[in-house]
């Protein structure tokens, strides 16, 4: 089992997300360090969003976007894949990112020869982890990269769909694709 220190990835994520933003088309509203006001409030922060401490943002990322969706358990098998899920989950939600993982595993299981199809329930449990273990055992490091690319592809389709169905989101599509895919 590989141990993954998430701290440098959270630091890079916060740096990329930047400081305070209040874009009129952003459905998340006021945001600092990539943490929306709603998420900050749900996690006990009651101050001005312009002053959300970086340490509070780090704790929120670790708790809500790493531990709660059990990406930490994915990291024991594939740190690179877990980091991909963290990054995707921050932007589209951990449940959506988990669904991308489950859908990709289903598409890559060779019609159930490597492991049975998963129910895409958007939760990482023993069956999803078992399927990931089987996939990595059969496909190895090359398969790990293909699985990461498949998750990226699903994320890209998600962004295009958002822009197509809500033109106000076109303001963000370029940045999402430039900074989150690849």
Summarize the structure.
The protein is 63% helix and 3% strand. It has helices at residues 7-17, 37-42, 54-67, 71-75, 79-92, 94-107, 126-165, 170-180, and strands at 20-21, 31-32, 35-36. α1 (7-17) crosses α3 and α7 (126-165) crosses α8.
What does this entry look like structurally?
Helices cover 63% and strands 3% of the residues. The protein has 182 residues and is mainly α. It has two domains: 1-58, no CATH class; 69-182, no CATH class. The chain has a three-stranded antiparallel sheet with strand order 1-2-3. The longest helix has 40 residues, at 126-165. The two termini are 26 Å apart. The mean pLDDT is 93. Pfam families: Glyco_hydro_108, PG_binding_3. InterPro entries: Lysozyme-like_dom_sf, Peptidoglycan-bd_3, TtsA-like_GH18_dom. Residues 11-93 form the TtsA-like Glycoside hydrolase family domain. Residues 98-180 form the Peptidoglycan binding domain.
Please tag this protein with its features.
single chain; 182 residues; mainly alpha; 2 domains; three-stranded antiparallel beta sheet; 3 strands; 63% helix; globular
Q: Tell me what portion of residues adopts beta-strand conformation.
A: under 5%
> Structural class of the helices, strands and pairings?
mainly alpha
H/E element string? HEEEHHHHHHH
| Total beta-strand segments | 3
The tally of domains stands at: 2
List unreliable stretches of 5+ residues: none
CA radius of gyration is 17 Å
Distance between the termini: 26 Å
The overall pLDDT average reads 93
Strand order of the largest sheet: 1-2-3
Range of helix content: 55-70%
Number of helices: 8
C-alpha geometry: globular
Sheet of most strands: 3 strands, antiparallel
